[in-house]
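Possible regression after last week's pipeline update?

I re-ran a chain I had predicted before the update to compare outputs. Posting the input and the new output here so someone can diff against the archived version. Not blocking, just want to make sure nothing changed silently.
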Amino acid sequence: MRRALLAGLLVVGAPTAASPSPPDGVVIEVVTASGSSCRPGTVAVALSPDRQAFTVTYSEYLAAAGGSAKTGDATQKCKLTVQLQVPDGVAYAVTQADYRGFASLATGANAALRASYRFQGDPQPTPVEHPFTGPYADDWQVTDRTDPVVFGPCGKARKFTIDTELMVDAGTAPAQTSFIVMDSTDGSFGTTYRLAWRPCTG
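New output (post-update):
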């Protein structure tokens, strides 16, 4: 069974029944971004208008192996820390992560997306890995779900760190270039993190 994402998230306060709609006054910001695919100006974070999710988009997140690819292209990483400012009296949880991209893998090649997530103060979780096997030439989408959903502190901002990694192995097709991309020049590719909200008492 897949390891629950965000395991160990502490509950502070006493959340009541789920809120029918997200609160006003929610703000998200990038605190730090580092890694071969997180150079300044290549990653953006935006809160959805309905405050039900936030989206991370990339412009240079591509791993490649074989053919004309360089040795260092086979593994690409991004470590992103964001902070969600929330009003007093509400708690939130990250319930799901939806990843999208494109892959072109020759027969005999393979690729993988590896991801982990944690809130400030929580232990580092074991990454979840999604494999892809050639031959493959199409868009891809994978989803990680939080089980169980655990809400964070009421009315407090916490830093949320996202570690992702794309890897490609040319395998038995070293003469052909295989690649996987989590790239976005038009906002169509990227990662969406779904949010849930609850009002708090106490």
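Follow-up from reviewer: compared with the archived run. DSSP finds no helices and 13 strands in the chain. Marking as no regression found.
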